[in-house]
Amino acid sequence: MRGKQIVESIYRDVQPENNGFWLGNPSEKAKQLYCAYFGIEEEALTEIEKQNLQNSVLTSEKIGKADVELAKALNSDLLWFSPEVDPGAWRHPDGKPMWDCFQEKRISLGQNGVFAETEDVAEVEAFDWPDPKYLDFTQTMRNIDYAQEAGLAVLGGMWCPFFHVACDFFGMENYFIKMHTDPDVVLAATEHITEFYLEANKRCFDAMGNRLTSAFFGNDLGSQLSLLVSNEFFDKFIAPFMKKLIDQMKSYGLKVTMHSCGAIFDIIPRLIDLGIDALHPLQAKAANMQPEKLAKEFKNDLVLIGGIDTQELLPFGTPQEVKDEVRRLKDIFGSRYIVSPSHEALLENVSIENVVAMSEAAVE
Asked: Which stretches make up the Uroporphyrinogen decarboxylase (URO-D) domain (predicted)?
């Protein structure tokens, strides 16, 4: 049992004979190296993909058939296909990006966004918010078909990083400050962002919901040491909007997988209460994210995905050390665990030898 069968068994808690494995979504340079190793050719970018990438922070340029072939070569059981990480899915007639947050191209998280100085909700209301009608799911649907023909599970839906989009509209430091000084402005902007995602996901799940093993969305809420906001502000500025998105995903009968990097141990019980079924990527070196601690508290409540350290082990360890760690985590987390890197985007400093070692130990 591998591929879609094993992943869906894990999500249903049917106690499969082995753990699942997900390669993640390697950066473009890493994917080029891995594809070259297996003799897999990547498809050329279209003109609209090239145009959209100019306004994008995507780490992987083109998601498609090459990803399916790479997954097959490495015995990866699932793939993630989202219109939001497909550079050809957004088709604004004037070339305007989905989230027009800056006057100039973004170069840092702290860079001022268009609402950096905003103190009046009316300015938020008057903004030219994006229209989901410019989304084109054609390539995403084709990618899902490729994966299903290969027997792989698919995670999908819009990525819905409303927390990060709000950060960009204000600039990260301004965003956190305005939670104190102009909370109504922050809430109004977050409401508009979330409403876009709710309508976009409605269109998305109407088209592809019955082909997905789980909805998958992400907001990085932790640093290496702690949450980025207080528990109080999580409850005020993040949780209500997350609940709307999760409830919508559940209304389509989907399992819900959430991605959040960082030290998020303190809010995992609240994430469970909000309705998530699986948590990714279990950042191995973040504070309080030790596998023993996560397993003790949450392995009976969540599918756990990730945990294979991308900060030290995968870039700098030996293949044998990688295998030993994979086996250790499988023992700790038990049957409801999908082996995967502790960040979805492997960088080019992770050798193919270590990726193969991770795969071999995951599926043995």
From this structure: 120-362
